[in-house]
Specification:
The complex is a heterodimer of chains A (291) and B (139). In chain A, 68% of the residues lie in helices and 3% in strands. Chain A is mainly alpha-helical and 291 residues long. Chain B has 2 domains: 10-46; 53-137, Immunoglobulin-like (Sandwich). In chain B, the strands form 2 sheets. In chain B, strands 2, 3, 4 and 7 form a 4-stranded antiparallel β-sheet that branches. In chain B, strands 6-5-8 form a 3-stranded antiparallel β-sheet, with no helix packed on it. Chain B is elongated and about 85 Å long. Classes of the chains: A mainly alpha (291), B alpha+beta (139). Strand 1 of chain A pairs parallel with strand 1 of chain B, so a sheet runs across the interface.
């Protein structure tokens, strides 16, 4: 019977696409991929009022049952896909546990940033919010390979003919719209922005940029055809451009759904755009991969 | 527990065991999950299932506003379960005549508190006003 508690030395390397890479480095990239996948998948529900309300009335036993069932569901997801590109290193039991943990942490960070966790709220309500939000979030981690692993080239000749920069700009725009469309019509972004302090807004902006960078980092763009890459060759430039696109899309969506107009002051509009911009940033980052 | 050192075995058809970094992640995730699960199981066992709504009123906080008396109250759910469609009433007794006003709140979570206001035409005191929970729904 094999000892499942064996571990490798930090100097252990594995072969990844013909290149020797440190094992723990690959494991960290897998973990980050799971984290990004979790945020991407669960985003609409993180911003949904009904989820927070449900957490205030659900019983302890029901939450415990949900959490136990959640683990089994994650085992199923991981068995079919998972967040590791290299299937040989997949362990569905431990990976499901990691998806679970990732879901809880990612939910807690997001709830904190959007003000749903505060010192005023009872601990029980806070933990229930995190536990319920961890359901879709852990699913996102469990299927992250589908969302953020390397993709094959597009089947479209038109898309293939475009420069890499144009593809990324279009991908970012479409991705931002696709993801944020679930959230933009609702009153929540405006409500959230109305009670946020400047610290929250700075936190959301920084976290948006970090997540955007992480998504780019785990997407495998570094191995793309270097000759076809232009101004967006540098990752932080790409991250910044994607964030600017995300903010523009955020503003346009708020205008489309009647929240913004020419009479809206900048002081009022900016927090709304930044809060919704968190959604559009994730969409813009993922859109560059999808396209 | 054994330790696998050195180069990769994947080329030979063997997968190297996870690194210590991976094990730290696993143990951390396990701790988080078990802590959260343990909290809810413990809370479920300890819960009496009884609802206790407490309405707190400080007469010194009552104030006259727009020709009426505004009575700020704090409605606290002291129980371990949340309630929906909560209705509370304030009954003011003035010269033998009772005047009742009701307030409703769609959701009040476990251990949660909300601030609310009752409006009366007469100045209230601690002696002539009473608060009651009229109804609620346990989800």
């Amino acid at each position: 019977m094999p000892n499942i508690f064996r571990y490798s030395d930090l100097s252990t390397t594995i072969d990844v696409d013909g290149e020797r890479q440190l094992l723990y480095h690959i494991e960290l990239i897998d973990f980050v991929r799971g984290f990004c996948g979790a945020l991407f998948f669960a985003l609409p529900l993180h911003y949904t009022f009904e989820m927070w309300e449900r957490a205030r009335v659900i019983s302890n036993f029901d939450v415990a049952l949900i959490l136990m069932a959640l683990y089994l569901a994650n085992v199923g997801f991981v068995a079919f896909t998972g967040f590791r590109v290299k299937g040989m290193r997949k362990n569905i039991w431990f990976d499901s546990l990691e998806s679970y943990g990732i879901g809880i942490v990612a939910s807690a960070i997001t709830m904190l940033l959007i003000g749903q966790i505060s010192s005023d709220a009872p601990l029980e309500v806070i933990l229930k919010v995190i536990a319920l939000e961890a359901v879709p979030t852990s699913f996102g981690a469990s299927i992250a390979k589908n969302s953020f692993a390397n993709k094959t080239k597009s089947d479209s000749d038109i898309v293939d003919a475009l420069s890499m920069d144009v593809k990324k700009v279009i991908g970012a725009t479409l991705g931002a719209i696709m993801v944020a469309f679930n959230v933009a019509p609702t009153i929540e972004p405006v409500q959230i922005a109305s009670f946020l302090q400047w610290q929250h807004l700075v936190g959301i902006t920084l976290f948006s940029l970090i997540v955007s960078y992480l998504i780019t980092f785990t997407s495998g763009f570094a191995s793309d055809d270097e000759e076809r890459r232009g101004i967006l060759k540098v990752k932080w430039v790409e991250t910044l451009v994607a964030y600017i696109i995300a903010l523009i899309v955020s503003g346009l969506l708020l205008w489309m759904f009647g929240y913004l107009d020419s009479d809206t002051s900048v002081q009022l509009a900016l927090p709304w755009i930044i809060v919704l911009g968190y959604c559009t940033t994730l969409g813009a980052s993922a859109g560059r991969i999808i396209l | 527990m054994s330790n696998n050192q050195g180069e990769d075995q994947e080329e030979n058809g063997n997968t190297p065991p996870p690194s210590i970094v991976e094990w730290i992640i696993r143990v951390t995730c396990l701790s988080i999950v078990l802590s959260l699960l343990g909290y809810f199981v413990h809370g479920g066992i300890m819960s009496t299932g009884e609802v206790s709504i407490n309405i707190q009123f400080n007469s010194s906080e009552a104030e006259e506003r727009s020709g009426a008396w505004v009575i700020p109250v704090s409605i606290v759910n002291d129980s371990e379960i949340g309630v929906q469609q909560l209705t509370v009433e304030a009954v003011l007794n003035v010269d033998g005549e009772t005047i009742a006003k009701e307030l409703s709140n769609p959701i009040l979570g476990a251990q949660e508190a909300i601030d609310a206001e009752f409006w009366f035409d007469t100045e209230p005191t601690v002696d002539n006003i009473k608060f009651n929970v009229v109804s609620y729904v346990i989800p």
